[in-house]
Design a protein that fits this description.
By secondary structure, the chain is of the alpha/beta class. It contains ten helices and eight strands.
Length: 254
């Protein structure tokens, strides 16, 4: 698709019902992100996602869409514990239904990325704002603004391609840097908050559907007032119950 100039679309989801709906859409791939710990479980960061949480949600997404290309996040810190421990995690996620794993960062675990790829399992890279390192990065902010930081991200992108990654997520980097990386790499880049020059884009399903009205980062476009639609529907249900209109005769058994 990159060679043909066709942009990729990815959506992050976490459960069977949403994967079942996405199976009816034209989206190209699904990500079971470690953001599940925040979106679905209410934790303050992604580091609270452990392997069992990722296994559970990956399996649910796979059951919802048996045919999808499903990427599962490698939870922190398993990719930093050496190739053997990482492969144990890959085994769990693969058996849960993952088609590939996504690993944040590059420096310090390129050997692990190479080992997983050489073992026959696809790896997607992730650079820029890497949420598992949010405390080290000083918060959720754009990365690669100064020349040195931009050069490090560029060099890391080349290293991940050389290590065998089949694609690369670029999160919250300046659009000029994302365009430079996208032109330099043979593999596709998937952007989030990195401008239109990437080879594809990804958003969290709940965010793009407007399910969290208080979450309004600059990069997010909502394609539905999901929160309003849901609360409106629930209010209509509650009113129908209070009015004695639900259930009616057709909705009752004789």
């Amino acid at each position: 698709m990159k060679d043909e100039g066709v942009r990729l679309s990815m959506v992050t989801c976490y459960d069977a019902w949403s994967a079942r709906l996405l199976a009816r859409s034209s989206v190209d791939a699904l990500l079971v992100g470690d953001s599940v710990s925040m979106v679905m479980h209410g934790h303050p960061s992604t580091v609270h996602a452990d392997l069992e949480m990722m296994r559970l949600h990956t399996a649910a997404v796979r059951r919802g869409d048996p045919e999808a290309f499903v990427v599962a996040d490698m939870p922190f810190p398993l990719h930093r514990l050496g190739p053997a421990r990482a492969m144990e995690a890959v085994d769990v996620l693969a058996k849960a239904g993952a088609t590939a794993v996504k690993i944040e960062g590059a420096r310090g675990h390129l050997d692990t990325v190479e080992h997983i790829v050489e073992s026959g399992f696809p790896v997607m890279g992730h650079l820029g704002l890497t949420p598992q390192s949010v405390h080290q990065l000083g918060g959720y902010r754009v990365q690669g603004r100064d020349e040195a930081a931009a050069e490090q991200i560029f060099e890391d992108s080349q290293a991940l391609e050389a290590a065998g990654c089949f694609a690369l997520v670029l999160e919250c980097v300046p659009k000029a840097l994302a365009e430079r990386i996208s032109r330099a790499l043979r593999i596709p880049t998937i952007g989030i908050g990195s401008g239109p020059g990437c080879d594809g884009q990804i958003l969290v399903l709940h965010d793009m559907l407007g399910m969290n009205p208080g979450f309004k980062p600059r990069f997010l476009r909502t394609f539905l007032d999901g929160a309003g639609a849901v609360t409106g529907a629930v209010d209509a249900y509650a009113e129908a119950v209070r009015a004695g209109d639900f259930p009616n005769k057709r909705e009752s058994f004789l």
